[in-house]
Structure formats: C-alpha cells, structure tokens
Amino acid sequence: MSSHRESSAMSARIAIDYVTHTFRGQPTATLEDVDATIQAGEKIALIGRSGCGKSTLLHMLAGLMLPSQGCVRIDGRRVTKPSAKWNMMFQKPSLYPWMNVRQNAALGLVFAGQGRSANTRVDALLDLVGLGDNKDANVQQLSGGQQQRVALARSLATEPDLLLLDEPFSALDAFTRSALQDEVAHITRQRDLTLVIVTHDIEEAVAMADRVLIMSRNPGTIVGELRVDLPFPRDRNRAEFTKLREHLMNKFRDSGDAHAAKPENIGKDDASQAAA
Ligand SMILES: Nc1ncnc2c1ncn2[C@@H]1O[C@H](COP(=O)(O)OP(=O)(O)O)[C@@H](O)[C@H]1O
Ligand SMILES: [Mg+2]
Q1: Which domain holds residue 104?
Q2: Residue 47: nearest ligand to its CA?
C-alpha cells in the first residue's frame, strides 16, 4: 500500500513545519513556530534549558502528542500517531521487574506480534550493547547503566528508522554516560538511523550529533544551530572537540531567553553543564 520510502532506506527524514503548541489552561504558547528539517540518517541533538519544550517537541515527533498548529511530517507523511518505525526512549528505562533481561528487551517485538523471532534477534542485540553475560539476569540486579542498555536493546529490536531519545543518560555516572554516548553514536551510524537526542549536556551534544539545534525558552523555538563536523569515534580531548564545545556553550548563552535573568531560573541548569 505505501511505497512512500525506499524499502532499502533505514532512516527517516523529518520535517517540522511551523509547530506551535499551547497547553490547555496555559496563557502563552510553549512552542512557537518551530521549523526545522532533519535529513534521513542525520544525528541531531536538541539542546535547551529545562522547561523550554524539548520533551514536548520530541513527543510530537513520536506522534504521542499533536501540535495545536503546524505539523510534523516523517518521510512526507503527517505524523498523527505513534509508529513502530520510530522509537522513543526516556530518561528512566521503564523495565518490568518480573521479567528478565531478555524478556524485557523482547517486549517491543512481542507487542509488534513478532514474539516468535524475538529471542534470536534480542540475543544479538544484547551482545551488541554489552549485556551478553546478563541475558537471564533479573533487571533489578543491574546497574543504572545496564538497565539503560536493556532499554536501548529493546528500542533497537523493532528495527526503527528513527530513534528519539529524551535525556537518556542524565541519570548515569560520568563514565557510563560517555561510554553509552559513544556506543549509541556508533550503533546509529552503523545502522543508518536518524537520531534525535534531547539533552542539556553540551558535551553530549558535541559527542553524538552531526548538528545541534538550540532551543530558547518562552516561547520554545529553535534559535540557532551548530554543525559538528568531527570524525568518529570522537575524542573528547582533541582540540577540535574542546573548541566546538566552547563554541556551542557560547552560542547557547547568547541564544536569548526572555526569562533567563529571573532569579528563580538562575543556575537551574548550570550543574549539568558544569559536569559536561
Ligand atoms: N501536560 C502539560 N500541561 C501543561 N503544561 C505542560 C504540560 N507538559 C509540559 N508543560 C509545560 O510546558 C513547558 C515545556 O515542558 P517540557 O517540554 O517538558 O520541557 P523540557 O523537556 O525542555 O524541560 C514547561 O513549562 C512545562 O511546565
Ligand atoms: Mg524534558
């Protein structure tokens, strides 16, 4: 029925078309005229301060929320509901404690009616994300980083064209976080997936993205972008990396935020940025 994309293509093109959103009962728009195009296979980091509307926008890309005005198109089709072709992963891995690692990773396939082939596919993915020795483990015995790896294997199992990640590593320690950043960057490139990762971690953005989109707050809209033209794997100690990180930090600071100077907002995001 639908031949809207090449069958061989394993990535999605996203058009965000003047998306504006006002939550019910709110006096002002949370998102205003968000307009952007993301190429198939492109890796995008979306950065902005807390409350600027990053999660709201990501939910719209996932079809979990509809904008009050404008629309999102993926491969030319208007997004009105979730699809198995794209997968959203959150800060908390949302695993089921009564299922082991393999069962949790297979859940997406089971929901998609592909439970029969699940075990073989999931086993290979668990090897890929470094959980080869933990397939039968109880998920509650895993570390936070390992749990997030299970969620990642589950997200990849249904072979989505597009991976949407909402601050997926922010709860992890610095070492685990940078290891997972590198792994996800590697896997999404290897599989030619389109990636949109929401973060307020400047280093994470430079480590993973081809292009960083900067969002302002009040209203939430894209106010700038930065291309990250560095080879993979990215060495965080290289001068080019450090330079781009500083450049992005400055761009971010200059990006204009009507309410940034309000006392209650000062320092709100500084801790995570200082850690970056
Ligand atoms: N369901 C909702 N109803 C009303 N306001 C909401 C709702 N969800 C989010 N908001 C508001 O929208 C703004 C953006 O939220 P969010 O997208 O979660 O920001 P971010 O992910 O950038 O921190 C915030 O001010 C938040 O309070
Ligand atoms: Mg959020």
Answers
A1: 93-159
A2: 1
